[in-house]
Structures are given as C-alpha cells and as structure tokens.
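Q: What does the predicted 3D structure of NAD-dependent succinate-semialdehyde dehydrogenase look like?
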Amino acid sequence: MNQSIIFKTEAYVNGAWTKAASGKTFEVTNPATGEVLASVPDMNREDVRKAIDAADAAWPAYRDLTAKERSALLRKWFNLIMERKEELAHIMTIESGKVMSESLGEVNYGAAFIEWFAEEAKRTYGDVIPPHTKDRRLVVIKQSVGVAAAITPWNFPLAMITRKVGPALAAGSPVVIKPPSETPLTALALSELAEQAGFPPGVYNTITSTDSSEIGKELCENPKIRKLSFTGSTPVGKILMQQSAATLKKMSLELGGNAPFIVFDDADMDEAVKGAVVSKYRHNGQTCVCTNRILVQKNVYDVFVEKFTRAVQSLKTGNVLDPDIQIGPLINEEGLKKVKEHIRDAVDKGARITTGGEAAEGLFFQPTVLAEATENMLIAREEVFGPVAPVFRFSTEEEAIRMANDTEYGLASYFYSKDVNRCWRVAEALEYGMVGINEGLISTEVAPFGGIKESGFGREGSKYGIDYFMDIKYMCFGGVKAK
C-alpha cells in the first residue's frame, strides 16, 4: 500500500505537499494490529494560518468560476475517487479499523456527495420578487460564503469530508480541512485526488495535527474563515461555538446522539431484528446515528430478545481486511474502557447479558446484548460508541415516545410498526432530526442529515446542504421608469 500514488504522508497546502514548520510528526497506527502505518506532519497554528491565507487568496478567482466550471471539477474528482475505490477503502480500513465491506460502502456513500453537489452547483437559484412599487425591481442571488473550515471525525474518514467539502466547493468556497489524528491518511488520499482533478492551488487544503484544541481555536477565531462545519461530540461543539462567537461565523454542528430504536408489538419481528443489527453494529457501533437504546413493547419483548441475540451471535469478528468479517476493533483504549464501564454498570443494576460481554484480543470486543435494561443505567443516558445493545421494555405508545425523547440529544431515531396511523403519530412525536420508519439504515446524499436539541444544527446533503455555504444577497433596482 505504501507504493500507492494516493498514500500520502505530508499535508496539502496551497497546491503543495508540505511538512510542519516545526518539523514535528506523529504516528498513525492500525487499531486492529497496533502496526505503525506512517508518520505525518504535526502542524501548529502557524501552519494553519498559511493554509487559511492560501484559501483566502484563492477565493476571488474560484468563486468567479461559473457554476458549470466548478461542477466539472467536482465531477472529475468523483470519477477519480471511484477509480481508486479499492485503494481508498484499504487505507480507510487499516487506519480506522472499519471492516473492508463497510469501507467499500463508505467510498460509494462519500463519493455520492461529490456527484450530487456537482449537479447542485448549477442549481443555486435565486428569486425575482414582485416589487412593492412600480419603479423598482427586486432580485435575490446566492453567493459563496467565503473560506470554509471542516473539522471531521475518525469514524467516517472519507464521507464526513465529502459531505462537507462537496457543497462548499460547489458553492465557490475554498476549504481548509482538519481530519482527526487517528485517520489522516484517507483525508490525504482525497487531497491527492482533488489535486489530480484540477482544483486550483489554495482551493483545497488539508492540515494534519494532534493539537486539535489549538487548531480548532485558530479556525474559529480567524476572521478569514467565514464558515465552520464540525462533526464530533457535543461538548467540543459547544467550545467551537463559543470560540466562533467573536467573528460571528456561519456554523454547522453535527454532534452527539442517543438514538432510540422502538419495536412495537405489531412490527414485523424479523425485519425489526434485521434493522436493529445493521443500525446498532455498523462500524462496531461507532457512529453518531447508531442505535443506542432498543425499546421493545412488553408483549413481544422476549421474542425480540431471543431473535436479536441469535442474529448478533452470527456476526463475525476478525481480520478487518476479510470481506466476510462484520466486526472490527474499537478505535482506541478509551473506547474499549467506556464499553466495559457501561456493561459493568448495567450488570450491577440488573441487566442480563444474553451474548457477548467480553473483551477479545487488543481493541476487539464481542458484540453484546443486554436484556432487562432500565433507565437508571449509564447506557440509557450516554452514547456508548461500541458494540453493546441494551434492550428496554415499554408498555404503551405514549411511554415509548416519552422514553425515546428523554435525552438532550436529537439526531437519529428508528421505529418499527405496521400501523400506518401509528407511523405518522410516532414519527411526528419523536424529537429528532431524522426518523427511520421500518428502516435501520437511513443516510443518503439525497436527504438532509442533521439533528436538533444538543445534537446540533445545520443540514448536510440534499438540496438544503449547499445553502449553508452561501450568503443570500438582496438587490433593489430603483428608478425603473416606464417608457
């Protein structure tokens, strides 16, 4: 893999591959094996300022390209990503621990945002407003917001970049990307392909660093950054929002989640089990939209737990490069510690382990099901971010909705029912930005992704996504006289 043309170990700033000014580097390791994969630049605020300055200098010429010209660049980038699909998936797997089948799926998913926004670039329509007086004409146009910063997480090393950068580049905004220190190699590979696609120097920049606090502070406080998009934890999102207040930046925050998965007694049990497995154990439970709490109506509780346990027992753990493996390692020791803590707390408070519950070698942990979960357990309140599924009982529809909404988070939610009236009632009552109805996998580039409450604000993907990288300008033409 080190011989691959897209396996890069330097940051990408102003159209050039570069080291940190300090000369410092940090190691990227494989969470499945502990192997050191590469050393990349450990950049500081000085390095970031150079990237921001380059993006700001590139902005006037890039925003003045026609929408069709920007669209052509994005389309070429999309084609290059798809041509290098296997290589990108391999890099993603070895640095994140995501199993190969899911990495391949993420390349498809992530590239779809580039394809989508290549088209949306040509559809940033304004308005002509009927005037309030005969001598005026009122027009509204949309323009690039300016330089955009993207701070992305390790659990989707490719898609979280393309979901943010696609609309920014389509709108005419140069970008400065800060990937996580756990997974910078996928981000750098994307930078290589962006360069091959022909984006002008300064339009696309990727900085690597272990000092997320100082880098984030620079991106928030620098007035040349006009828009900040962040995916990560709610506490960090709040800090970034505070730090951005002085410059009144546009922001999109996709933060923590505590997704409920409700199974009503009229649901198709086999389909509900299938949906719960894919929603809970995708990337080993390490996604913000993963099911965190499974709520099952008491009449079908035992049946569901039995079927769900059998399905989880069939999941295969092992070599993440094996296409038949579904469960890989946790990202680090901290993640492993949290999983153990949540299970220990739940068992101490009466939960019953129906399968799993034990750590394996290294950062691997057995897929786990906890029956008899209750609302006083840590796992009911906190995002576990691991392969642990607690199953709670409820009696009525009203109780299920109360339990589901009893959290400060509001990102994704899911429920299964055959009653169309119930489907409408529950979907409207759930306090979440996204609802899966008889479906456990809902993310797509054509629909808006984002949450409410302390899961953040802003939407990514869909026709709405590009608006967050544009300003609305109203123009009033006066003195228009009749002939």
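A (community wiki): The structure tokens above were generated from the sequence. Residues 100-120 form the longest helix (21 residues). The longest strand covers residues 137-144.
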